Fold Phosphoserine phosphatase.
Amino acid sequence: MNLILQGNSAPRHLVEQVAALARPRAIVAIGEHAYRCEEVTYNDEVKAQIDLAAWASQLDYAFLEGRRALGDFGLLAMDMDSTLITIECIDEIADMQGLKPQVAEITEAAMRGKIEFRESLMRRVALLEGLDASALQRVYNERLQLSPGAEAMLAAVKAAGLKTLLVSGGFTFFTDRVKERLGLDHAHSNRLEVVDGKLTGRIVGDIVDGEEKMRTVQRVCDELGISPKQAIVMGDGANDLRMMGIAGLSVAFRAKPIVREQADVSLNFVGLDGILKLFTR
């Protein structure tokens, strides 16, 4: 078992202090601010100690059995809002209606698993009724930003031959544009109904909830002729747990506690390109 420790700043002495809890045979630098601690002791008690120490030191950690190459996988599936991008699009759309606090409260509850996603989405979208559809372009132009490390991660993933999937409980207006901008292979999300240039407060077609996200990952894997165990799946909210659960590697990115607890790997401090440190080159 190896332990990967990394951070935006990871002084060697701090890494050694945290790693000592797992008694590594050796500590090897694998990049700037990233280290592989080899042949560590691993059990629930050690993991709990590392979890506390790493968080206090603002280090991300991952226990990995053996070594794997990025090319061992065939698909990278990503949630969009608060994962590939920094914002929750629906919250920013609601801001154009002066309703961001109300919508953001529902979003937060849904992402923490306190409200069923389908119900929460219908409640939030209903609040957008009557908003001019031009607000969507404003959100895209003025507020949508990629998460740190997104482009570096995608460049490495594509170079390793993986296909990419953006699967979101958000909206096609944004996923279609992000897909084209980043050259992604697949995208699937919800479609907002627009009539006479205004949002109606309704979704067109079936809702992309946690179950549909999982089915989408399975469907794309089937199309690629691979098992879901050859997929890396990244997310941050409770509605991502189903698709993360069938993956070969699940990654929680700056995620809610319920997601961090269930993911194989949790990145809380470094950017999306932090996943690259998990693989041999």
About this structure: The longest helix spans residues 210-224. Residues 70-281 form a domain with the Rossmann fold fold (CATH 3.40.50.1000).
